[in-house]
Design brief:
Distance between the termini: 133 Å
Strand content: under 5%
Number of helices: 2
Shape: rod-shaped
Structural class: mainly alpha
């Protein structure tokens, strides 16, 4: 028989406690890893969407926008000019 320095019950209790500590450590590390990967994925998707939708517009699109603005302003000016030349009432002179 081999000589034993501690009782067998103590060895089993210590092994059980060490296994429990290992399970808790692995679970904590897994949660931290999953949360950090999730945040990283969301950050990458957010950056890609921001660049895609807020990116620099091409020349044709900006020209179309400017033309629409110019046409709107000119139409309003013409409308107000017509209103100014009209008589204020519809009564005959």
């Amino acid at each position: 028989m081999y000589p034993q320095l501690v009782e067998p019950n103590i060895v089993h209790v210590m092994n059980y406690q060490l296994l429990e500590c290992n399970k808790k450590r692995v679970m904590k590390n897994t949660i931290i890893f999953n949360v950090s990967c999730g945040i990283l994925i969301l950050l990458i998707i957010g950056i890609i969407l921001y660049i895609k939708y807020k990116g620099k517009q091409d020349i044709q699109t900006t020209m179309k926008k400017e033309n629409k603005k110019r046409e709107y302003i000119l139409s309003k000016l013409q409308f107000y000019q017509k209103q100014r030349t009209k008589e204020f009432t519809n009564m005959p002179i």
